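Quick look at the format.
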Amino acid sequence: MELSLSAALILCLTGFIAGAINTVAGGGSNLTLPVLMMLGLPADIANGTNRISIMLQSLVSTVGYDRHQTLDRPAIVPILIPTVSGSIIGAVAAALTPNLYLKPLLLGTILTISVLILLRPDVIAPAPGTPIIAPSANRRAWWGLFGAGLYGGFVQAAVGFILLAALAGGLRYDLLRANALKTVSVLAFTSVALLVFIIFDQVWWVPGLILAAGSMVGAHLAVNIAVRASQTSIKWFLFLMTVCAVLASLLF
């Protein structure tokens, strides 16, 4: 695929914005997927190509959160078991079927989270000192993580909201640590999903790597801002991004 300089700049800028959004909240793929399709990629190819950017920005975010000691390392494996398991099923399903059927699920999920943040902020943003719950001790959260992996493997858009609902709402992590675990989860199951899309020849590397270059810079800057932000600031940024994700989903 040949790209003009203007198309490459659009991809890089879109990746930068999406990388920052995904690192602190979610919904960045509601920007990147339409842009990829606008530049001529079929929907299935755009879905696969987008995973390059997601994987590399998640790698940058994970390293950044870990460097600032906000990543709960002992919790990684218990959280990755359900998310990666779900992503394998979701990615294979996405490679074989159209992804239009999940739009109602996408809208319903992010609308629900928006309402929770507005009316019951303690559900998605636990108070300081709230005890953390292990995934094995909360079956609803375990299945929520599995569902997030399933959805994320199928179509990446807004999976961060589902993960945050499971990690902050179910396991009671504060939003900073929930975001750190969210990024390592996305890194793991997106790597698996990307491999599936490569096998099915649904990845175009040139636009994917250009998009990834911008998203990695955005992710790096966002981590440095997030670790200094208050829980309240992160909560309202998350709310703003859920509203934007709803609007983007309705438009595209």
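Next, a different chain entirely:
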Amino acid sequence: KGHIENMVKAGRLWGIGETGIDRGYPEFLDQQKSLFEWHMNLSETYKLPLVLHNVRSGSDFLELLKKHKPVMAWIFHDFRGNQELMKSMLQLHPNCFFSFGLSLDNSPQIRELLPSVPLENLFLETDNQRHLDIHDIYIRAADQLKVDVDFLKSQIWHNFKKLSPLSQ
């Protein structure tokens, strides 16, 4: 914890995370929640975005949003939730963002969800998959959203700039 706090205090981090709750490991649930709350407090205290890992834990995040009412952006990495969960999160915290990558190809649920994600709350990613090129992800997403790929790139760059502590 001390190393992370020192990096945050020195202004060396853009955001906090990836952190979150993964119900695939129920034996560590209490530790995950405790660590997540510490990360969330760092995010709020130092005004840094929070990058989230969410595996079958949407209800946990809804509960945390209701309880803590965070201000800083929450970015759900490789979001796999449904439209109802996304809308509930945005209602509780309009500064939530949802990122998609490989799931655009391998998840019919995500392909169906993507058009309902507000463009101002969207990110795309490769998740460090060596076989993926981010440009290909943009092309697939633009095709599914029925928008121009350059428009989509511009929108996502704008989303990033809104979050960047360097631009504030």
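The first strand starts at residue 16 and ends at 22.

See the schema section for token definitions.
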